[in-house]
Design a protein that fits this description.
13 helices; about 425 residues; six-stranded parallel β-sheet; 13 strands; Rossmann fold; 2 domains; about 45% helix; alpha/beta
Length: about 425
């Protein structure tokens, strides 16, 4: 289906009744949090605006089409590996691709009444990112929206103060050009303010994933692999932030060593451990991590330690529902555990972790990913375990409150995007 052949429709055009809405971002590529954010917004659109014509511009269009039943087009024209080992052709194709992407993005955006960026950390550099990747794509999206009259909405996004000059300029300019902005925590809004963006009209709402439906099964039910209880440990191939590229190998080694030492302590003290990722990019890393730990304990019963696959966010939630305590690194793994009222330790690599844990009443249980110390983790874990009953009760209340607040944003979003006289304009 070719969306570029559709006639352009604006809200003031009475010839057509249905608004055309696009979803934009790193979607379908296996990041469970990103895809859960997409699914949350799709559910909102289908319930509140059932006549809307939906499509997506994303990193893995085939997966989005198969999983969510909407047409999708590729975010970037250039595809890695297309030119084999030819360095010259690869460089030329990348350069050509930036020009092609400029036209493709504008052509796609102008055919919509609104484009939504559903959550994600699109305004942050807590993990390594190059300026001509997401920052450039976001810039193209927002300037295309401003030039074509399409309303671009950045909904409950993450943000951080960016030190790299070009990346910062692209990100700040994109944010200023957006029609609607909201952030998933106060620290994100403060970061944009520090970088010179007028945030006086920008809202702060909990992450979109708080609006993702929770499993109907009892939290005491067995996980996807049949286990019940024990400790869930979420890991990733962590190498520091965008500012840490020269130290990435050292940071990775310290992270892996600290997490393995902690898992060994859990096993030696009788806990059952299930290790998981939060992105398909984590799969090999998780398997290697578990294999290395098992090598250190050759006599260990394999039922005590295993990697659990989580190809979707629903799978992840089902696993989490079976755990007694969660220790996790990826932001949406931490969020998933808190949403399910699981006593949680966050292996934090950004202010978003700290803000989330503070809002949920667990600020004392953040642990820096850059300097994982097994002995400190053990102390935090032991204390968390002793207070688990009270913490579960607190998290149940705070999770419900966050869900209500996250849901409340959708009425505001409808007014901003689908009302002819909304009067919303952020510069």
């Amino acid at each position: 289906m070719s969306l570029t052949r559709q006639p352009v429709r604006r809200l003031h055009d009475t010839t057509f009744a249905a608004p055309r809405v696009g979803l934009f971002g790193l979607l379908g590529q296996g990041n469970l949090g990103n895809d859960a954010s997409l699914e949350t917004v799709l559910t909102y659109l289908r319930v509140k605006h059932p006549d809307a014509i939906l499509d997506c511009m994303c990193s893995e269009p085939d997966r989005v089409e198969d999983s969510y039943g909407i047409p999708a087009s590729r975010l970037w024209w250039y595809e890695p590996g297309r030119y084999g080992d030819s360095r010259v052709m690869t460089v030329l194709a990348k350069c050509l691709g930036k020009g092609v992407d400029t036209w493709r993005t504008f052509s796609w955006v102008r055919r919509h009444d609104a484009v939504i960026v559903p959550g994600m950390g699109v305004l942050e550099t807590s993990l390594p990112i190059k300026p001509l990747q997401t920052p450039y794509s976001l810039f193209l999206l927002c300037i295309s929206g401003r030039l074509s009259g399409t309303k671009v909405a950045l909904v409950s996004v993450g943000a951080s103060v960016i030190n790299q000059r070009f990346t910062r300029w692209l990100t700040v300019t994109a944010a200023r050009l957006a029609h609607y902005r909201s952030y998933r925590d106060v620290s994100a809004r403060n970061a944009m303010q520090k970088m010179g963006v007028d945030v006086s009209g920008d809202g702060v709402y909990p992450d979109l994933v708080f609006s993702f439906p929770t499993p109907r099964e009892s939290p005491a039910h067995a996980g996807c692999d049949g286990t019940q209880g024990g400790v869930g440990v979420g890991i990733m191939d962590y190498r520091g932030s965008n500012d840490d590229r020269t130290e990435s190998d050292t940071i990775r080694q310290a992270y892996v060593s600290g997490m393995q030492e902690f898992v060994l302590w859990l096993l030696d003290n009788g806990r059952t451990v299930r290790v998981f990722g939060g992105d398909t990019a984590d799969d090999t890393f998780v398997r290697d991590f578990v294999a290395d730990v098992l090598t250190s304990r050759p006599g260990l019963d394999s039922s005590h330690l295993a990697a659990v696959p989580a190809p979707t966010f629903r799978d992840l939630m089902q696993h989490m529902a079976a755990f007694d305590i969660v220790v996790a690194t990826r932001f949406h793994n931490v969020l998933c555990a808190l949403k399910l009222a699981k006593p949680t330790i966050a292996i934090s690599y950004g202010s978003k972790h700290d803000a989330l844990m503070h809002n949920m009443g667990l600020a004392a249980y953040c642990h820096p990913a850059k300097s994982v110390r097994a002995d400190q983790l053990v102390r935090q874990f032991t204390d968390l375990e002793h207070q688990s009953a009270e913490i579960r009760e607190m998290l149940t209340q705070r999770s419900a409150a966050s869900t209500r607040l996250a849901d409340s944003q959708f009425a505001e979003l409808s007014s901003a995007l689908f009302s002819e006289n909304d009067g919303v304009s952020v510069g």
